[in-house]
Specification:
The chain is an alpha+beta fold. The protein contains 2 helices and 6 strands.
Length: about 80
């Protein structure tokens, strides 16, 4: 059985495809509005210190995502 890869686990420079969002409705809608939808490619550019946010790129958009929100984004293995 394979463990689910999550956006929060992706290293800087790593790229993956979003498979699903396991979040409550409000957070899910926010993440989708930012471009994090199944099938989209996401790249981690930087990770904040300690428990800081992730600086990511989705398509042509760059954004910051809290680690607890990034933990809700499942990636293709």
């Amino acid at each position: 059985m394979h463990a689910v890869r999550r956006l929060v686990d992706l290293r800087p420079g790593g790229t993956a495809t979003v498979v699903s969002l396991a979040a409550e409705r409000g957070l899910r809608a926010r993440l989708e509005a930012l471009g994090l939808r199944p099938g989209q490619t996401v790249q981690v550019l930087r990770r904040g210190w300690w428990s800081g946010p992730l600086h990511i790129r989705v398509g042509m958009t760059e954004l910051m995502v809290r680690r607890r929100d990034a933990a809700c984004v499942a990636l293709a293995a």
